[in-house]
Amino acid sequence: MHAIGIDIGGTKIAGALVDEKGQIVTQLRKPTPAGDSKALEDIVVDMINELADGTDAVAAGVAAAGFIDATQSIVYYAPNINWRHEPFRDKLEKRVSVPVIIENDANAAGWAEFRFGAGKNTSDMVMLTIGTGVGGAIVANDRLFRGGFGAGAELGHMRVVPNGLPCGCGANGCIEQYGSGRALQRFANTLADAGGIGQALADVRSKNGNYLHGKDIGDLVDQDDPGALQALRQLGDWLGQACASFAAILDPQVFVFGGGVASAGEKLLAPVRQAFLQTLPARGYHPEPEFRIAELVNDAGVVGAADVARQHAVATAK
Ligand SMILES: [Zn+2]
After folding, report:
1. Residues with a beta carbon under 5 angstroms from ion ligand 1
2. Are residues 158 and 90 in the same domain?
3. Which superkingdom, per the lineage (predicted)?
4. If you measure from the C-alpha of residue 235 to the centroid of ligand 1, how many angstroms do you get, rounded to a whole number?
5. The CATH number of the domain where 101 resides is what?
């Protein structure tokens, strides 16, 4: 039994026909039409119809950044697209031959890791996606946690510093401001300003017109540059402390790290683990979860969206 997954990103829309084992059978890709929600709808409709044509596809899941309502029908708010209370599911179902559900993109990616990647063979998983911001997904007792209104699991907006740095969400002191790719750039810039171990960071920054790209920091991490590693340790320290709070509430068996910064692998996980163990409430008595890097990377959105849609179709058919 196959299902279709669509992942609407900021720059591209990915679509795939996915089997029950999470394997991609067919794949499509188109650029996201910026600021044109009707053109975007047309592309998603065409993709679903093309992928479903001549197959046994039972459902389509569409992943997008933003708040989705609890019935997985309406996008309350999407940061990248001009949607406010958009009844996207109804609009799509009128134009395609399979039932549709809408899923938050971080939830879709988390579900894919839980079913087929770094979280498989567990019942409780927390995933943090460390990109420009900090995305989150929670699986509790084998189920994706969405909250009562569908807007839960926004782990990046847990407050870690009272009256801390202002966040894009309108609050202050969210972990996103201390544990994201942007925070890593801030730490690296401070080290570059100070010289010493930050000298290599300062050199590459001045070569790039006084701007430190995430990729440059990543390259220096790969070369074990002491300044870049120090910036990554600062980031890991914040994330490890946040995970200790998540563990106190959710008690997952595994924390999965995805997103661009997670490509640092063990160099990120080691300081996360260390800070986690130092801050974990009731440490010494609380069983230790594992810390792993995400496995599905670019395909997680489409694979997760397809699997969520398939499970929903199977459950409603019963
Ligand atoms: Zn926030």
Report:
1. 157, 167, 169, 171, 174
2. no
3. Bacteria
4. 16
5. 3.30.420.40
